[in-house]
Design a protein that fits this description.
The structure is a single chain. By secondary structure, this protein is of the alpha+beta class. It has 2 domains: about 5-255, Zn peptidases (Aminopeptidase, 3-Layer(aba) Sandwich); about 260-335, OB fold (Dihydrolipoamide Acetyltransferase, E2P) (Beta Barrel). It has helices spanning about 60-70, 90-95, 120-130, 160-175, 195-200, 220-235; strands at about 5, 15-25, 35-45, 50-55, 80-85, 135-140, 150, 155, 180-185, 205-210, 255, 265, 270-275, 280-285, 290-295, 305, 310-315, 320, 325-335. It has a 15-stranded mixed beta sheet that branches. The protein has a 4-stranded antiparallel beta sheet with strand order 16-15-13-18, with no helix packed on it. The longest helix is centred in the last third of the chain and has 17 residues, at about 220-235. The termini are far apart. The chain binds zinc ion. Zinc ion binds next to loops.
Length: about 325
């Protein structure tokens, strides 16, 4: 049994707003607890969709799209259930940091979690065992956070199972994002089994994610794509009927591959990163990603970093100061 409790029912009919409550008794708050905002609406018969943002606390398009949805929740005519958590890693969200300020863990590398673990492990465990277990569909909304800036990009896992593949393809088409990145969820960014998507899949929950901006700011294009996409997915899965939200603003979707490690550039040294490409640029194989200058011996020639593969520049580092192992950005190649 999780030590996290909800102030509202996840299962009763009606629209409710409240908190998940995590006991957190510390120096300045004996018997204190952490409160994570949650909204649930259940009405009629239909699917359950779990909408989660703020897994990383320095990403804002997802939380804002869900704030706006929460504002409409009481009047929204649905057939099924919506479970909405705009800042599921609330300690990180209030600190505006990627990882939790309490235990330094990255929630999206902490699945399946532990019911009696640290705060982040408890949140992961609650998502896996109390939320995903109720959901037919889940959307986990991200951006590049503080250190990366993304072109708004819906991300779809690639499954070997044909039926899952076809369900995901339907969701992707309904969402209507101009750019869709396809990735192998089981290997996602070295996350292995510790990422949200793989736990969702093990619970037989169809899952989408996405990067809708970054740089600790709000990307208005990303917010618009996300808000419209959510409403189109609701209609696609039968949660809402009729025309809800704006129709898709564009007519073509570009499908991109994110599997290839040669699409990524990393810094091998400490220094100042001068990028040599812009977000949205089309780069040939071997193109210069940037030059890194040694701040202690600035008379030395800079280290040149190149992308091995070519493609569309969908991601770039925001911070100029780099150290060995930092991601400088990445490309995506056409599928
Ligand atoms: Zn994130």
């Amino acid at each position: 049994m999780s030590t996290i409790t909800s102030s509202i029912s996840l299962d009763e009919i009606g629209a409710r707003f409240g908190y998940l409550r995590i006991p957190h008794s510390v120096h300045d708050s004996a018997y204190g607890h952490i409160r994570i905002p949650i909204a649930v609406k259940r009405q009629g018969e239909g699917p359950t969709i779990l909408l989660v943002a703020g897994v990383h606390g320095d990403e804002y398009e997802g939380p804002l799209a869900l704030y706006s949805l929460m504002g409409e929740l009481e009047s929204l005519d649905i057939h099924g259930r919506l479970i909405v958590l705009p800042s599921v890693n609330h300690p990180a969200f209030t600190a505006a940091t990627r990882c939790s300020p309490i235990d330094s863990l990255n929630l999206n590398r902490s699945f399946p979690g532990a019911e009696h673990g640290s705060v982040t492990q408890k949140i992961a465990d609650y998502i896996a065992n109390e939320l995903l277990s109720r959901a037919d569909y889940a959307i986990d909304m991200h951006s590049g956070g503080s250190s990366l800036q993304y072109l708004p990009l819906l991300l779809a896992p690639t499954w070997s199972d044909a039926s899952k593949r076809s369900t995901i393809a339907g969701l992707v088409e309904a969402f209507g994002s101009p750019l869709v990145g396809h990735f192998d969820s089981l290997k996602a960014l070295d996350g292995g089994d510790s990422v949200f998507g793989n736990v969702a899949d093990r619970q037989n929950c169809h899952f989408l994610t996405g990067e809708f901006g970054g740089g600790s700011t709000v990307n208005l294009d990303g917010l618009r794509i996300l808000s419209g996409g959510l409403r189109r997915v609701f209609r696609h899965i039968g949660l809402t009927k009729g025309e809800i939200g704006e129709p898709s603003q564009h007519h073509t979707t570009r499908h991109l591959n994110l599997h290839d490690p040669d699409l990524f550039a990393f810094s091998p040294v400490h220094g100042i990163f001068q990028p040599e490409y812009k977000l949205g640029a089309e780069l040939a194989p071997g193109a210069l990603a940037g030059r890194i200058f040694d701040m202690t011996q600035p008379w030395l020639p800079p280290v040149e970093i190149r992308f091995k593969a070519g493609g569309l520049a969908v991601c770039i580092r925001t911070f100029a100061v780099v150290k060995p192992g930092d991601c400088l950005g990445h490309l995506a190649s056409d599928l």
